[in-house]
Amino acid sequence: MGDTSRIKNVARRVVEQYRQGNQMVVVVSAMGDSTDDLIALSRQITDNPSPREMDMLLSTGERVSSALLAMAIKSLGVEVISLTGRQAGIKTDMVYSKARIIDVDNDRLRAELANSRVIIVAGFQGLNEYGDVTTLGRGGSDTTAVVLAASLHADLCEIYTDVDGVYTTDPRVVPEACKLDTITYDEMLELAHLGAAVLHPRSVECAKHYGIPLHVRSSFNDNPGTIVKEETDLEISMVITGVTYTKNVAKLAVFGVPDQPGVAYQIFKKLADNNISVDMIVQSAMRDGINDISFTVTQDDLHKSLETVEETIKEVGAQGYTYNADVAMVSVVGAGMNSNPGVAAMMFGALAEENINIHMISTSDIKISCIVKNSDAEQAVKALHKKFALDKIDQN
Amino acid sequence: MGDTSRIKNVARRVVEQYRQGNQMVVVVSAMGDSTDDLIALSRQITDNPSPREMDMLLSTGERVSSALLAMAIKSLGVEVISLTGRQAGIKTDMVYSKARIIDVDNDRLRAELANSRVIIVAGFQGLNEYGDVTTLGRGGSDTTAVVLAASLHADLCEIYTDVDGVYTTDPRVVPEACKLDTITYDEMLELAHLGAAVLHPRSVECAKHYGIPLHVRSSFNDNPGTIVKEETDLEISMVITGVTYTKNVAKLAVFGVPDQPGVAYQIFKKLADNNISVDMIVQSAMRDGINDISFTVTQDDLHKSLETVEETIKEVGAQGYTYNADVAMVSVVGAGMNSNPGVAAMMFGALAEENINIHMISTSDIKISCIVKNSDAEQAVKALHKKFALDKIDQN
After folding, report:
1. A71/B45 touch (CB, cutoff 8 Å), yes or no
2. In chain A, which residues have their Cβ closer than 8 Å to the Cβ of B57?
3. Would you call A36 exposed, middle or buried from its count of C-beta atoms within 10 A (0-12, 13-18, 19+)?
4. Which of A5, A68, A86 shows the shortest C-beta gap to B42?
5. Which tens digits make up the pLDDT trace of A31-49?
6. Do B68 and A60 touch (CB under 8 A)?
């Protein structure tokens, strides 16, 4: 939701679809900068606001846009009603600011749909068992949409965003990047986790769990976007679906870790206790009864991570640690790589051709990630996109 | 609620009072221009928004200020919780945008007070039996405070406003105007109805009904304000408590109205059906089997009123009508005038001395109102304030 002209535009599209005979539940996010404005207000009051009060504050943003969108739709002659998270029956756990949806009581939703009304739901929010407002944290509005689609057994969940769909890589880096017609949930999950900001992994996980197809498309135009679903329609599944990257990552390596059960647990438990999110974790093969464990964190968390690691290495009896504060993760993703053992080699080869040094490697069934110098990231993405011929894909 | 610095200021005062051992429920209004900003947003969408959606939209303003005030109080080290109208148990009728409170379920309020928490309630809003948010219309936040005070059997309800209290008249017109230490509910009601903008009549009516003393005081300083209660403490009740006026009023007179039952009903029913609020109504004594009925409306409603009256006079068989689009109502108010038959004469005399012509007169037990030329209003107020020696009152 941008400004009121964008709201009117969304209203027109909703009305069009409604008039084609669709029952519709529309989940909205807050308008433009309104969430940031509310956060700025709270900062004027205190640096350390109560999470409960923060949720009370922030949940108003989606209410405003839901009411405005309902007004806009109504003015086009269609019956419509806005519902808060509570009214939409969204019940969450007690964790303020990043609550998880535990149940949906969809009685009211069903009743309003039965009245042929379009329903606008304020996203990103629910009610906990105290009757207090909670917000769902990052990806909350998309997740609301997916959960409601699942609860109502919707045919499709459309996610309107500011891009046309899911691309083989970031078009700002590689102008030849292609929009994908379809992608599997798992591929989307890998892409989402890797910083392709189109969809939060949480909403994709949820869609996968309930088998709800997602249609990721632009709120600015009527172009078809990308369908996220279990199996793609491609006759021959593409080996690589996309190339993605996350810049400004920090890498830590703890070396000389005793090869005993529970040591990795101790390291990462302590990091988790300090609220440090660890991304890639790599443990090299044992050598002389000791291991090296490397992992990546955000640059913001580096300082806290170093303190934590310093404590831990004493406790676990590791020899020491190193870090690099300025690296990037570059990944290729594709469900087809499973059956194509040459993908990793192709990737490393492409990076070598560009003289890009690889600091760390991690692979999963559908993804290969390399840690490289931050300043090499874009060049790596371009090289990989070209190497895997993603600029020449034919999705018929 | 002005800006965040004013919120911090309110927080300090709340904490001071809390530390003196008071249990406190604080009802907040929206910040500064935020309600106007929300209305402006809705206007960008449609000129004719659904009242239900408008309530959803506008109720966010008080939620924002309640959350911010709670954060500010918490940062001063006091346990506090913000509650929406719903969470405070405020149940209203179904009339969006001007709902009336029909019940308060104060379980949550009592529980939070029992936890020694300060409670911040988002004013101006409640929940109807559909579970939808309603707003209470003008005076809604003050009324919320009074109703909660009644429900919780509070000792006192303080109303923080931008003036120091209730004055004998508008200090902008009469610099000698005195702040009143006390005033009765009825006097306050007359003053409020007459445009003294300190308290909405609705909240005063409610306080009177439940016998809740109100303390009207400034949110900018710690000066004692004005106590509104059943009986004043003055040993000898003042004859006149205040002088007030409403400018920009329009006067209509329907003349030659047949003296039959139901005619006045027909006239004012039709005005009411057209949503025209009539203020003063005067019917002169019958003469030759016909009556003249005069009344006042706001200047905004004049055009619609004239159309309505034109229709009605044909139906009821009146002879015609006149109007004056530019008059003002000047009133003296005081519970003591009941036993002082000379008050009316004094009032008319004071106006005559200033050569101010009186167009209409209406009296109640505690009020005498005169309609005068708009341009005479301030002069009339000054003369009356002086005549009744309101600049010399001694409240011991």
Report:
1. yes
2. 63-64, 67-68, 71
3. exposed
4. A68
5. 988 889 999 999 999 998 9
6. no
Q: How long a stretch of residues is chain B?
A: 396
pTM of the model: 0.76
Q: Are A309 and A252 in contact (CB under 8 A)?
A: yes
Q: Cβ of A53 and B74 within 8 Å?
A: yes
Yes or no, beta carbons of B56 and A67 under 8 Å apart:
yes
A305 burial type by CB count under 10 A (0-12 exposed, 13-18 middle, 19+ buried): buried
Q: Which of A46, A67, A70 sits opposite B75 (nearest CB)?
A: A46
Distance to chain B for A84, nearest Cα, Å:
9
| Chain B environment of A56 (Cβ under 8 Å) | 63, 66-67, 70, 82, 84
Give the CA distances from residue A252 to residues A270, A303, A307, B18, B172, in Å, rounded to whole numbers and listed in that order.
15, 11, 12, 50, 70
Phi first, then psi, for residue B116 (nearest 5°) are: 60, 30
Q: Answer yes or no: same fold for A4-229 and A242-392.
A: no
Q: Nearest Cβ partner of A42 from B8, B42, B71?
A: B71
CA distance A129 to chain B (A): 12
Q: Which residues pair with B182 in a beta bridge?
A: B227
Tell me if chain B has a CB within 8 Å of the CB of A46: yes
CA dist., res. A67 & res. B52, Å (int):
9
Q: What angle do CA A103, A107, A111 make, to 5 degrees?
A: 150
Angstrom distances, CA of residue B77 to CA of A323, B3, B114, B318? 40, 21, 18, 70
User: Domain ranges in chain B?
Assistant: 4-229, 242-392
B48-102 confidence digits (pLDDT tens): 899 999 999 999 999 999 999 999 999 999 999 999 999 999 999 999 998 999 9
What pLDDT band is residue A101 in, cutting at 50, 70 and 90?
Answer: very high
A242-392 homologous superfamily: VC0802-like (3.30.2130.10)
Q: Which CATH architecture fits A4-229?
A: 3-Layer(aba) Sandwich (3.40)
